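ok so i was messing around last nite and threw this chain in just to see what happens. nothing serious, just curious
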Amino acid sequence: MSRDIEIEDFVIQREVTESLKKGKVRTRYHFNVPFLKGPIPLLWLVKAQRLGRSALSVGLILWYRDGMREIKSFRVGKRDIAKLLGTTERSVLRGISKLEAANLIFVSREAGHKLIVTLNKSPAAWETKGENNER
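result:
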């Protein structure tokens, strides 16, 4: 039993238009839960995935942290990432080292301080010598 489509089905309700006029934007997120802020370049994710599970996991956390702030670089602790991922600090360091070697992130280290990480968002810099992306 199907019902006929009426033009009234497509009319925007008055309370929605009023809330838009007042600057109250309705969002589809109803819960206060963490989320990744995009866009995240697919090529960046593919390259991180090819480096292994630790690199991809750490990379996703770094993109999450990057989306939390409007600044280019941010401090991150390997212990914090390890706790969030439920893994060891050694695994996190391995992931960070692989991402850095692949030129996907830049890391600045200071003795006794958290790492300062900058995501490399320039696709041209992700290319490595001898790599052919055409398949």
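not much to say yet. The longest helix spans residues 53-68.
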